[in-house]
Amino acid sequence: MNTIHNLGYKIINIFWRILFAMTLYFAWTSPNIILGDNSTFGTSTTWLTTYAIIIIIALIVSIIVFPKVKNSFSFIFLRKQYITAPLFFLLIIILQILFVYYVHPVSGFDAGMLHYAAVNPKHVLEPNVAAYYSLNRNNLPITLLMRWIIVQTGYSSWIFFDYITLILVDLSAILNILCVALIRRKALGTAIYMHCAWLLFFPSIIMPYTDAWSLPLVSLFILCYCIMIKKNLHFIFKTLAAILFGLTIICAYFIKPSAIIPVIAMILIELLSLTVRKEHFSILRLVQIVILLSIISGSALSTYKITGNAIDEQRYIKIQAWRSIPAIHFMSMGVYGDGGYDANQALEMAVLPTKKQKTEYSKKMLFRRLKQLGAFGYLKFIVKKQSNNTADGTFGWLKEGHFFRENQKPTTKTISGKLKNFIYLYGNNIADFRFMAQAWWICILSIIALGYENWKFRDFLKLSLVGGFIFLLLFEGGRSRYIIQYLPVILLLATTSFAPAVARARRIADWARRK
């Protein structure tokens, strides 16, 4: 049994090291991190980025050189972190609210279609709307949820759904922090700081779509997992967590199916842990595991049946189920161009009348491309696609077609215009945003790389991310927007890796000084 355990972890670590090393390398070499003129985007960072870099360098040097500065910094941000960190989190929330208030443009891609269909029953009678949902049935659940929210609250504006997205994203952060409180309480302050930094460079709160809406669900089922594996918690809490776990994974599946990949990682890690003989594994423990698994299964099956029936029986949007796009279409698109959306294949999916014809066409395109690439060519393509999937710290911001409907060249005379300049395609500060977001992404990935340690929960997080990487390599990817759904995993990895990363960095620095 130990052989199975060791082999399993060896395979996980091989995939992890290869895929994560590529992600780290591509993040460090991303054009987003270019300071000054950027020929790739035709933009340039401004004095704002330059001043930010100077201030950060000056602060780091001051902490190293001046003991008083170091002691003050340590007192405020470390010894008083349980006061300082929540205040920072509160400040970030205020900034988010102001950001949404001043910046809430309507999107023109899928997010825009979801909102358009949800706000008015007359819209769903339009042929293009019915055709969209017939082809993209996966977006039906979130549209029905948005419609339910509109009916219950009476509000339907885009800014209203931006605020809902803001709440969901922040809820994900809070749930992640609760996970850290359970599994590594000493890292609680670090967790809050880490999530504050993420939220500061995450403008997707103004994009009400499955990427952001799936985040609290992923965070919640990870929290439930943490509760169930916590040894000293009362069994009643684990029972409640099991009920919520089963419900949440099904809700996540309906909102964004690929978001449940961490659940598969949980199962595999738990199965591997069972292959190692445990001295204190009692009959009572075995009974508890069976009870929890039964509760999870019952909760999940019930939720799936109720939700599935509600979607199948809905009458809000009349769809033609036989026109839906088969899964193999996304595999076919995933081997062309950048490994992402292919307009020509998408058009064929709309033209071909039956699901069988769509499937046959996608198979033909997939096998044709694989034959054309060959083994070496496909390997080369996969390496490039991993870069496209994971290198961009803005998470594919502005890379969807018709990202915003309004003019992409904002004014600089109003507060709204000044903020839009950071996130609009032709904004004066778009390069500043790209640089800062990429710097944050590089820091997160570097912390994870340095903070390696043997720990089952970390192994689960690693395997979750490996699963996400492989999924995006096999299916439609091509931009890092699809990584958003795995941000709870990445943020938890970075948070729990921070202390060992700092310790390892100090050892490396000491070694370098001795040399």
Automatic annotation (TrEMBL):
<feature type="transmembrane region" description="Helical">
    <location>
        <begin position="460"/>
        <end position="477"/>
    </location>
</feature>
<feature type="transmembrane region" description="Helical">
    <location>
        <begin position="435"/>
        <end position="453"/>
    </location>
</feature>
<feature type="transmembrane region" description="Helical">
    <location>
        <begin position="87"/>
        <end position="104"/>
    </location>
</feature>
<feature type="transmembrane region" description="Helical">
    <location>
        <begin position="283"/>
        <end position="304"/>
    </location>
</feature>
<feature type="transmembrane region" description="Helical">
    <location>
        <begin position="48"/>
        <end position="66"/>
    </location>
</feature>
<feature type="transmembrane region" description="Helical">
    <location>
        <begin position="212"/>
        <end position="228"/>
    </location>
</feature>
<feature type="transmembrane region" description="Helical">
    <location>
        <begin position="190"/>
        <end position="206"/>
    </location>
</feature>
<feature type="transmembrane region" description="Helical">
    <location>
        <begin position="7"/>
        <end position="28"/>
    </location>
</feature>
<dbReference type="InterPro" id="IPR021200">
    <property type="entry name" value="CHIM_prot"/>
</dbReference>
<keyword id="KW-0472">Membrane</keyword>
<protein>
    <recommendedName>
        <fullName>Integral membrane protein</fullName>
    </recommendedName>
</protein>
<feature type="transmembrane region" description="Helical">
    <location>
        <begin position="235"/>
        <end position="255"/>
    </location>
</feature>
<feature type="transmembrane region" description="Helical">
    <location>
        <begin position="163"/>
        <end position="183"/>
    </location>
</feature>
<feature type="transmembrane region" description="Helical">
    <location>
        <begin position="483"/>
        <end position="505"/>
    </location>
</feature>
<keyword id="KW-1133">Transmembrane helix</keyword>
<feature type="transmembrane region" description="Helical">
    <location>
        <begin position="261"/>
        <end position="276"/>
    </location>
</feature>
<keyword id="KW-0812">Transmembrane</keyword>
